[in-house]
Amino acid sequence: MSKLEQVLILDPPSDLKFKGPFTDVVTTNLKLRNPSDRKVCFKVKTTAPRRYCVRPNSGVIEPGASVTISVMLQPFDYDPNEKSKHKFMVQTIFAPPNITDLEAMWKDAKPEDLMDSKLRCVFELPSENDKLNDVDPIKAALVLNTSKADSTSGSKPSSLSLDDTEMRKLMEECKRLQSEMSKLADENRQLKDEGLRMRKAQRSDNMVSNTAAMMRKETSSKSLPSLLVVIAAIFIGFFLGKFVL
Predict the structure, then answer these.
(1) What is the pLDDT of residues 159-189, one digit of tens each?
(2) pLDDT per residue as tens digits for the range 21-35
(3) Of the candidates 53, 86, 58, the residue with the CA atom closest to the CA atom of residue 70
(4) pLDDT tens digits, residue range 91-107?
(5) Left, alpha or beta for 98 (phi > 0: left; psi -120 to 50: alpha)?
(6) Are strands 40-46 and 9-11 parallel, antiparallel or unpaired?
(7) Rounded CA gap, 47 and 141, in Å?
(8) Which has the closest alpha carbon to 76: 102, 50, 108?
(9) Cβ atoms of 32 and 61 closer than 8 Å
């Protein structure tokens, strides 16, 4: 038996494009539309489950309804020379009446009742034109806000209030840095004063020690002649005593 043709209409039909840079999560959408008059169960699978986050990855689509699926690519180091081999598959089946357990239904599903569509992943880096197009809406918003400011004096645009808030933050940061610099300058002066005091104290200690040494030398030099005089007097008295006797 030939395989059933996919009942859902996929948008995009074959490629899931992810536009970099890929330093952050990149999200692309996949829209599933059910043009039939029956409920359709769907399930999304990928060959790289660790690289993608899919919400929702399964569910039921009512007749004539649509579901938008968000496919989130996780950050990675992009190599332009490396081709992406990641693929997705949307698997579907007509929902049986009074369905209550989707997991049991998928487990018991027959291969001939399943329908599937495959999509490949395409990684793209933004071109220069895309960058300019991204900048142009920002410029247009700024011009629009400026014109509103000129025409309306009573209210301030949100962009201007945001600028004022940023300016206040910058001013507060400058004040904080200036206070820290003054504190550091005070600490530096205190350290210099402390160093001067220590050097002066060391010099005074050296002067006191030198003065004490000089006084000891003078005392020793003065006591030496006195001692010699006493010794000489003793000898003279000893000899005179002998001659007298």
Answers:
(1) 444 466 777 777 777 777 777 777 877 787 8
(2) 899 999 999 999 999
(3) 53
(4) 999 999 888 888 999 99
(5) left
(6) unpaired
(7) 42
(8) 50
(9) yes
Here the tokens at position 241 are 């005593």
Give the pair of three-digit tokens for residue 223: 């006591």
34, 63 contact by CB (below 8 A): yes
DSSP-derived pairing of the beta strands 58-61 and 40-46? antiparallel
For residue 243, how far is the Cα from the chain centroid? 112
The torsion region of residue 70 among left (phi > 0), alpha (psi -120 to 50) and beta comes to beta
Place of tokens 């002649």: 225
Token pair for 13: 């039909």
